[in-house]
Specification:
globular; alpha+beta; Alpha-D-Glucose-1,6-Bisphosphate, Chain A, domain 4; seven-stranded antiparallel β-sheet; 146 residues
């Protein structure tokens, strides 16, 4: 298994950040990594996504929502091909800080037979995508809070 993550602090309350993170149908308005998503964020549900990591091929994926703990965790599993070829377990952790600020941590754990061989390419590019997404999330949340 290979893991990468990126975090950011947003000057907006946790509830506001949570609404933006879980409103997948509005990702097209702000999200550079996932510029298209359709579905319902509910455990067991599927969300159709277009994933565009920097420097990697764009890919349509159907992810399964694994966890949705209100104002805390949103997690899904995406598969590239058949199970255990290259699986990505992606999570957002949202935590309140002082003065109405919020920390968001995105983490993805890759597993499967291609995880090791592709790690040198996949991990830095996905991290770059997470950082771009986090900055866009920060801008959207802070604009809405002001």
């Amino acid at each position: 298994m290979i893991t990468t993550s990126a975090e950011i602090v947003i000057d907006a309350p946790k509830e506001a950040v949570w609404r933006v993170v879980t409103d997948v149908n509005s990702y097209s308005e702000w999200n550079p990594l996932i510029p298209s998503a359709q579905g319902e964020p509910a455990v067991g549900a599927s969300i159709e996504m277009l994933i565009c990591p920097p420097g990697l091929m764009r890919r349509r994926a159907r992810v399964e929502v694994l966890a949705l703990i209100p104002e805390r965790e949103f997690r899904w599993l995406g598969r590239w091909g058949f199970p255990r070829i290259l699986d990505g377990d992606h999570s957002f952790l949202v935590e309140a800080l002082d003065a109405g600020r919020t920390r968001v941590t995105q983490t993805e754990t890759f597993s499967g037979v291609l995880a090791g061989p592709l790690a040198a390419i996949l991990v830095p590019r996905m991290r770059q995508g997470f950082e771009a997404m986090n900055h866009a999330l920060k801008a959207r949340c802070e604009r809405r809070s002001s």
